[in-house]
């Protein structure tokens, strides 16, 4: 950073190095480096002042050199394990929404995002992700049927956070909604509407769906009602086929709780094709409150998960773990969103 003189005033040319930025800020080069990396040894006020100067003068530390010094990759892994739903894609509205929130937050924190769609063939898929040395930490969007694998790896790898359920004694850190409470909300709403022939549609094996079914069934039992279960893979076409078969035989349900909004949309399609009126003859309720839920015909009643808050909690607690700090699981209360399908 050279000095120039104009009209008796000393002007500083554009800074190009951390040392130049340090001179402008009146601190050491080491302090500038730590401030730009968000190191806790530098006060928040000093960090903000130096980061503002860096943005103003477009000064950027050499990222590779910084990563080598800090033994950091500058990247966070974002993986979606699909052990129970191998045909599911990243374009699923629920996953797409949560992935979008998470990726935006990580980029805002200065991290690159390494995205993986995992089809587990054996138990070492997670070991390979965390041991490859390509990321500073890993976020899992869902536990699928890989709960035990996640538990095993979490016992030796701390910067790992999953979206999903939390069980008593669980080792891996999880953020998610209270799925039991969500299932209970669904049943109570349908029962209040006078429905008595309740049907749950979805895959009861993955932990989140299992909890939704447990809450739904418990609320039904408390009201003296038995909840029927139509177990099916969560692929939209398979939900639709299973629902069409079920509607063709036996006593018709008067209320259907689908394990996700996407499954509920397939249910609505099958019910409509059967010539049944929603909600007069059959009420339908979903889970998630994806954007499309408000635009189905009729608009879908659902249980909302606060994905924006969930994503923020996942990122904050993962980065705390990356920094060597303690961080605990969190459970988010679900919310009933009533629309015209019930």
UniProtKB/TrEMBL annotation:
SUPFAM superfamilies from the xrefs?
lambda repressor-like DNA-binding domains, Periplasmic binding protein-like I
Q: Which Gene3D superfamilies match?
A: 3.40.50.2300, lambda repressor-like DNA-binding domains
Boundaries of every HTH lacI-type domain copy: 16-70
Q: Which residues cross the membrane?
A: none
> Cross-referenced InterPro entries, in alphabetical order?
HTH_LacI, LacI/GalR-like_sensor, Lambda_DNA-bd_dom_sf, Peripla_BP_I
Q: Can the keyword Disulfide bond be found in this entry's annotation? A: no
SMART domains, from UniProt? HTH_LACI
Supply the alphabetized keyword list: DNA-binding, Transcription, Transcription regulation
The name under which this protein is listed is Substrate-binding domain-containing protein
């Amino acid at each position: 950073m050279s000095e120039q003189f104009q009209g008796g005033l000393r002007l500083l040319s554009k800074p190009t190095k951390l040392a130049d930025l340090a001179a402008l800020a009146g601190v050491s080069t080491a302090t500038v480096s730590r401030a730009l990396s968000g190191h806790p040894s530098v006060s928040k006020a000093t960090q903000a002042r130096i980061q503002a100067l860096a943005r103003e003068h477009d000064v950027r530390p050499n990222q590779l050199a910084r990563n080598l010094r800090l033994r950091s990759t500058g990247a966070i892994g974002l993986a979606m394990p699909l052990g129970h739903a191998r045909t599911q894609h990243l374009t699923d509205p629920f996953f797409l929404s949560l992935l979008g929130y998470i990726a935006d937050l990580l980029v805002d924190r200065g991290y690159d995002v390494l995205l993986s769609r995992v089809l587990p063939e054996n138990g070492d898929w997670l070991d390979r992700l965390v041991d490859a040395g390509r990321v500073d930490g890993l976020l899992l969007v869902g536990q699928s049927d890989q709960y035990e694998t996640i538990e095993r790896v979490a016992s030796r790898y701390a910067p790992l956070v999953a979206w999903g359920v939390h069980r008593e004694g669980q080792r891996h850190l999880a953020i998610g909604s209270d799925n039991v409470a969500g299932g209970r909300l669904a049943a109570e709403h349908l029962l209040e509407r006078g429905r008595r022939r309740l049907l749950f549609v979805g895959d009861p094996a993955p932990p989140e769906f299992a909890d939704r079914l447990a809450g739904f069934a418990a609320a039904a039992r408390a009201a003296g009602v038995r909840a029927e279960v139509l177990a099916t893979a969560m692929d939209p076409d398979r939900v639709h086929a299973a629902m069409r078969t079920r509607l063709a035989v036996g006593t018709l349900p008067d209320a259907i709780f689908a394990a996700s909004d996407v499954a509920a949309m397939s249910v609505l399609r099958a019910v409509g094709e059967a010539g049944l009126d929603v909600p007069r003859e059959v009420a339908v309720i979903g889970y998630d409150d994806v954007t499309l839920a408000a635009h189905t015909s009729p608009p879908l009643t659902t249980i909302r998960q606060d994905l924006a808050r969930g994503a923020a909690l996942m990122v904050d607690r993962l980065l705390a773990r990356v920094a060597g700090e303690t961080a605990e699981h969190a459970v988010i209360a679900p919310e009933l969103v009533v629309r015209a399908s019930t």
